[in-house]
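Retry 2 of 3 after timeout on previous attempt. Resubmitting structure tokens to design endpoint.
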């Protein structure tokens, strides 16, 4: 029978040689193409070419898209979640979450998804697009009354902006198969400076706010450094910080066994520095688990760097849907947790393999409990806490008109004095 067939030694040698040639060829192909996208992004800039100060808003947006959808989608997704978690480590912010009534088990899932949608919309759309302006105007409206009451300070908002940037840089440096180049960091700086301006966040706390920044890289590094110092200054353990984590982390994992919940908390602890870990009352991983986390992280890095071909355009990770649902004219969203907020009920989303895994962890499938999870989709003009639904339309329209009238500076750092706000 087939199991007893003997293959002559010379044939085994030929098979091994063919496998070795195929493996070496594949590794060579990976090495040849793995860094092509990085080289393409860097090509217009560098010694003897254009200065980083000449980078346009359009170029920065294109680089952001390449990084988020094709090059490093995992890092950008994780950075958004970590930045949202770390917001609770700032006492003034965690106290605000507690008094607004949104920091409870019933509302936390929707609030987290709403926040992520607004961030994704603003990060993925051109600055002069309607979707970007609507997303930013909605964030501004939801923050406005708390800013006027001084319950959200300018420094808190600057920290929120800076933490979004800092976490992208931190996650990529810690978890990814390659570092960002100065050109890519410059693009991140341009995006976050534009977003800060559109949100009305003063930059006075940054050292170069008067003289201006040389380029987006200069702004990005300065904002990150200020963010770290601000956390060291104000982040302290508080009851509301602990409550924030118990609501947004523990309650989301309530269907899991205790030991798995503990492991998730330790995984989060491994991604935080000592200051924020203490402020959020999250434990560090035990030595054995820390070794496992490090091993998995490094295996992933090496596998992507040496074994994985770059992601193709057809496999791009879209942050949001390009078009609204033809039926509802609203935008649906892909699942980002155990609750199916804004997910369209389809046969695959309700009965596919992923849905059974979600059910196994105690999650809900799209269409559960009727309209509870808004399966028809979301509207950027009304998204947010239920008490604010349908409110702020006039204020948002005014804000949108201001952004539209401001226009888009072609090269925001071409004049160093443009850095001041």
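Retry 2 succeeded. Sequence:
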């Amino acid at each position: 029978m087939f199991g007893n067939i003997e293959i002559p030694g010379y044939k085994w040698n030929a098979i091994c040689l063919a496998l070795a040639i195929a493996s070496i060829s594949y590794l060579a192909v990976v090495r040849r193409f793995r860094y092509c996208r990085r080289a393409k992004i860097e090509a217009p800039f560098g010694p003897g070419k254009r200065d980083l100060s000449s980078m346009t808003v359009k170029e920065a947006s294109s680089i952001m898209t390449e990084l988020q959808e094709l090059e490093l989608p995992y890092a950008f997704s994780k950075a958004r979640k970590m930045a949202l978690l770390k917001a609770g480590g700032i006492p003034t912010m965690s106290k605000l979450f507690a008094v607004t009534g949104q920091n409870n088990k019933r509302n936390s899932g929707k609030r987290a998804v709403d926040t992520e949608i607004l961030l994704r919309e603003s990060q993925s759309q051109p600055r002069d697009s309607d979707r970007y302006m609507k997303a930013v105007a909605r964030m501004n409206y939801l923050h406005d009354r708390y800013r006027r009451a001084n319950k959200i300070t300018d420094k808190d908002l600057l920290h929120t902006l800076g933490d979004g940037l800092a976490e992208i840089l931190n996650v990529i440096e810690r978890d990814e198969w390659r570092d960002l180049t100065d050109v890519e960091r410059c693009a991140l700086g341009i995006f976050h400076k534009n977003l800060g301006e559109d949100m009305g966040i003063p930059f006075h706390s940054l050292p170069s706010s008067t003289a201006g920044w040389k380029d987006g890289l200069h702004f990005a590094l300065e904002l990150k450094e200020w963010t770290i110092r601000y956390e060291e200054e104000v982040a302290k353990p508080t009851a509301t910080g602990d409550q924030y984590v118990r609501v947004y982390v523990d309650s989301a994992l309530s269907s899991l066994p205790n030991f798995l919940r503990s492991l998730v908390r330790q995984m989060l602890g491994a991604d935080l520095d000592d200051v924020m870990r203490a402020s959020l009352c999250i434990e560090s991983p035990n030595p054995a688990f820390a070794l496992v986390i490090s091993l998995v992280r490094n295996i992933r890095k090496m596998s992507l760097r040496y074994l994985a071909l770059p992601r193709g355009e057809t496999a791009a990770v879209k942050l949001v849907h390009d078009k609204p649902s033809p039926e509802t004219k609203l935008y649906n969203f892909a699942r980002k947790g155990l609750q199916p907020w804004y997910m369209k009920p389809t046969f695959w989303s309700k009965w596919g393999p992923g849905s059974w895994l979600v059910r196994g962890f105690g999650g809900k499938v799209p269409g559960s409990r009727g309209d509870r999870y808004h399966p028809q989709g979301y509207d950027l003009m009304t998204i947010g806490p239920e008490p604010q639904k349908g409110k702020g339309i006039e204020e948002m329209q005014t804000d949108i008109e201001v952004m539209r009238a401001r226009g888009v500076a072609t090269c925001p750092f071409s004049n160093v004095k443009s850095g001041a706000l």
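Attempt log closed. Residues 9-34 form the longest helix (26 residues).
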